[in-house]
Write a structure and sequence with these properties.
Elements lengths: L2 H27 L6 H21 L1 H6 L1 H18 L1 H32 L6 H13 L7 H48 L5 H28 L4 H23 L6 H14 L5 H25 L3 H31 L2
Helix pairs in contact: 1-2, 1-4, 1-11, 4-12, 5-7, 5-12, 7-8, 8-9, 9-10, 9-12, 11-12
Length: 335
Amino acid sequence: MKKEDKISLAFLVIFALGLLNLIINLAVKLGMRLSIAQSRILFLAVFLFALALILSSKEKILKNKFYSYFKKQVLLFLQTFKEWKVLIRGVIIDALALFSIFLLIFLALKFIKWNFSFMEQIPGFLAATQSHLETGAKAVDSALQQELQKTAPNIKSALIFSGVGLIAAYLLIILSIGFFQGLLYSKFTGQKFDKIYLRKFLILSFILILSFTLLVILTGVMIKNKIAAYIIVFSLFLFFYLALILFSLTDKKEKILRIIKSSLNLAFKKIYLFFTPFVIAYTLITILFLIMGFLQAKLALLPLAAAIIYISIIIIFIAWLKFFIVKIMESIKNG
């Protein structure tokens, strides 16, 4: 048996366990209750069944169409780690993108706080007014009236400037995402990062993020119960899924509308092509978090150190997932 087949068969067992873990987690989210003992028995049963199936029907499995497809996915998975230099560049770019977004949000919040800094005096005015009324005064004195009259236009001005600041921050975040994702995907796809490539990523980022923002706003306005939170979370995963495909397909030679049409066609009509890659990715991140949880318990890591490691794992994983999907898309294009 070839080395590739040995690795792929081993991955098939891990894949089965990862798929089981995904099903159990979904079942728990839907209200099903499983004890730790029951979960362990299920995992052991699936492991033994998969192992027995592989050992007893090895020849049949190797000729199976699904196995051929699965083997190709495994080889692409391994290929992403062989090209580790490209992957590291992607991780650095994604980390810079995340830093830029948090910096813009921080500056926007600081700007809003500065705009409303005059309101720090209002509690003093209210306290003075309350004291004045409690002493039996019939009206607020002229000094307080003047201060309150001054405050009203300040609030209006602060609201306007804060709104402008938020819109500016929103647009800058889109520009930042478009720039860094264009730079990242140019490394992953081997395309030259120039004005044409950047412009396409800026336009696609604007369309994607604006669509998500409008959906969140409409959901918040039209739906007032807990379902709204589930819809928003689902939408977040949906738009991330679409972004992975959309950005992977972005080509300087293709028109924007054609890229969007091809992406939607693949994302929904051929969603089955991404089932195996996403289960592999899910299994990987689950294993990483299990290892991290074990190390955290054994090494008694401080909360800050643990948080930094978890964030680092997520950044690395997301960059790797983008690279993996690029490889998948190249495989689909090549047939």
